[in-house]
Design brief:
Elements lengths: L2 H22 L1 E3 L12 E3 L2 E3 L2 H11 L3 E4 L11 E7 L2 E7 L4 E4 L4 E5 L2 H15 L22 H8 L4 E7 L5 E8 L2 E6 L16 E6 L5 E2 L7 E2 L4 H8 L4 E2 L9 H7 L12 E8 L5 E8 L5 E7 L5
Antiparallel strand pairs: 1-4, 2-3, 2-5, 4-8, 5-6, 6-7, 7-8, 9-10, 10-11, 11-12, 12-18, 13-14, 15-16, 16-17, 17-18
Helix pairs in contact: 2-3
Length: 313
């Protein structure tokens, strides 16, 4: 047997051995028993600390295996990136065109088996459930230097008396009596404390619970949102913030955070029933969840901006 044949046999044997070793070194994407063992997960720009959401994500990840690879994958980005610490090992998961995991502890790289399927499953989950990520602070929702959710006294001081006031008895999910204070290009909803004589009486300290920007006079001009207002490009928002345009299901108003923000505390949804929106999640100054929705029209422009409670009730 000549040297060439020996060389071919050796190369073939090494290849077979490498494949065997690679397949033997399989392991789960996550090794922990439940999401209780992971304090936070970072997905793209979103940090998630809500335990229910983390548990859901971990349960999805646990269904998939990885295999150690000898292929070279320089550090790269993907359409979706997930960072978490699993059994004291920092991991960086990249999904999209390439589906791999980098393990920071030893520099190992693992290919995700059925990574495309995992990617689609996670995208479907996030489209419907992700609203607990803290993307912005309360201060980021201010406009023109004014507080977005003031109490009634400060609202009147800043904006004057409204053009019109509508009263709403809202008994779905959030029980209460609400007044909609309508100004040019903006509307504020206040939950009324009421009194013995008038259930819609507004106390000076009653606070705004929802804001609707309806015209071009106002925009979210803080450094975070960068001046997004009525007429802004939805595609620019998607690119700048790595977001998705979501379909809004008005038949299921309490299923997701985006529907809750759009429909709660008002009974006139029909007049602004846009079918698509972009959702941002943050917190109020009192720690409550705060959602911002940019409703998108048929021209892919922002038609209405709604800020409100995605989880209250």
């Amino acid at each position: 047997m000549n040297k060439k044949v020996y060389l071919v046999i050796i190369i073939f044997a090494i290849a077979i051995l490498s494949i065997m070793i690679t397949n033997i070194e399989r392991e789960k994407i996550v090794m922990v028993e439940s999401g209780d063992d992971i304090s936070r997960i970072r997905i793209n720009k979103n940090t998630i600390e809500d335990k229910d959401t983390i548990n859901d994500i971990v349960e999805i990840l646990k269904k998939y295996d990885t295999k150690k690879t000898i292929n070279q994958f320089p550090m790269q980005t993907g359409e979706m990136e997930i960072d978490y610490v699993d059994n004291h090992k920092p991991r960086h998961l990249v999904l999209g065109e390439t589906n791999i995991i980098y393990e920071s502890a030893d520099g190992s790289v693992y290919e995700i088996i059925d990574g495309d399927k995992l990617f689609l499953e996670l995208k479907k989950y996030f489209n419907y459930h992700l609203c607990h990520a803290k993307e912005f602070e309360y201060l980021d929702t201010f406009f023109g230097g004014m507080e977005s959710f003031p109490n009634y006294g400060d609202l009147i001081e800043n904006f004057g008396l409204p053009n019109e006031v509508k009263q709403v008895a809202y008994d779905e999910v959030i029980y209460g009596r609400f007044s909609i204070l309508i100004y040019d290009d903006i509307e504020f909803v206040i939950q009324c404390s009421g009194n013995e004589e008038n259930e819609f009486f507004i106390n000076e300290n009653d606070r705004v619970c929802r804001v609707d920007i309806t015209g071009e006079k106002y925009s979210l001009d803080t450094s975070f949102f960068g001046g997004i207002g009525i007429g802004s490009s939805a595609n620019d928002i998607v690119k700048s913030f790595d977001k998705q345009i979501l379909e809004i299901d008005y038949s299921q108003p309490n299923t997701r955070c985006i529907e809750r923000v759009v429909t709660r505390c008002r009974t006139d949804v029909e007049k602004y029933k846009y079918e698509r929106g972009i959702y941002f999640s943050g917190t109020m100054d009192n720690g409550l969840a705060l959602g911002v929705v940019f409703l998108i029209d048929e021209n892919d422009k922002v038609a209405r901006i709604i800020m409100g409670w995605p989880t209250a009730g």
